[in-house]
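dude i think i finally got it to work??
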Amino acid sequence: MYLGLDLGTSGLKAILTDETGALRGTREASYANPHPHTGWSEQDPADWIAACETVLDGLAAGHPSDMAALKGIGLSGHMHGATLLGADDAVLRPCILWNDTRAAEEAAALDAAPGLREATGNIVFPGFTAPKLLWVERHEPEIWEKVAKVLLPKDYLRLWLTGEHLSDLSDSAGTAWLDVGARAWSDRALEAGHMTRAQMPGLVEGSAEGGRLRDALRARWGVTGPVVVAGGGGDNAAAACGAGCFAEGQGFVSLGTSGVLLSAKGGYAPDPASAVHTFCHAVPDTWYQMGVILSATDSLNWLARQTGRGAAELAGMLPERAEGPGDLLFLPYLSGERTPHNDAALRGALIGLDVAHDPAALTQAVVEGVCFAIRDCLEALRGTGTELTSVLAMGGGARSRFWLEAMASTLDLPLQVPAGGEFGAALGAARLGIAAATGGSPAEIMTPPPVGETIAPRADLVPRYAAAWERYRALVPAIRAAQAD
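look at this
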């Protein structure tokens, strides 16, 4: 049996599979994501451990014979988080998360360092790990002086599971300390970020062994033999493993808390100026590119809070099928934006509000605004020479038929909807666990899911959504100017 653990922003998901990837059990546990100040987003790493104990205790109670046969664990997690540890591995402060923008000034300074983009293959975004450490150095010097190790969120979970300070290359690519082409820590980037190799974890490929489950935990969960813990992956790389995205042109659009348009790449071909991320994949000798927006379903969650209605209730107000863009435009820059703007200060807007607009109209505007932001990502990817030929639809937003039809017609690309079952980051993590424990070929283990339906772009809607997207993107300079005043 094999276990996939996906450490998300709002909760931990665990799935238990056999060697074919067939689901045997699943558990979830949630935790808080405090925002103590504007632009801040933090989490207590102790909550991740408590969630892991909850889900694995539950699987051990509900599936004792399967847990007894556990051979491998794979880890997936939200990227860029700065988990700061002292010499005794004690957590020094709450983890600063991926959607925290407090380090915008530090990110700009680091991005301007000579040779930094060339070393890492990426713009330094405020959400990346390296600028957060510079912020701590500047604002919390008493913490900075004690930092012995910096771990990404899933790798703090690994430390508890195995006792090892290790990370994989896909997750580490989002720190701004990694030479993404060489798949190794960059001395130039570490020096620019005032860090040392001694403060970095060791590196392994995501499909390779990254520690062994501690004996005390094996005994707690009734596991009879040794358990390999795979290197694992950042959440998007792990999701690509779950979706079987490895070949040039294969990709997915993910509508989760954030939004992602990802394309696998056969080689290393960065274009930092595009604000497209170029990262190592979770399997050897493979990379991927992606455009990222910071608020996808989180935009719908924001609207739910403002209207006093649940996100599911709002989604239920949408038409059964897309009928063309509404007359209200929404810019989903609630926490700034990454691709293509790289602007932590940019903020959202509703344009064209009318007294007649009701929650259904607001919901449609939010959904379409996210579609337009993903179209921005598509154009940025195309600007690097990347063309998507096969696109899976993933994430909570992909459960909305309206959202899928609007997205397909906005991108003018067919979207493939998997036929059900697990296929996201948790499955990708389990598959990495299988590869690490068995030595099997990732290509044979991590196959694409069967497609249940293909949502084609509608010829009658494509030009209308294209015109609406042109109006949408023309608003950004005006919004920036208004906010600057």
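The mean pLDDT is 95.
im so relieved honestly
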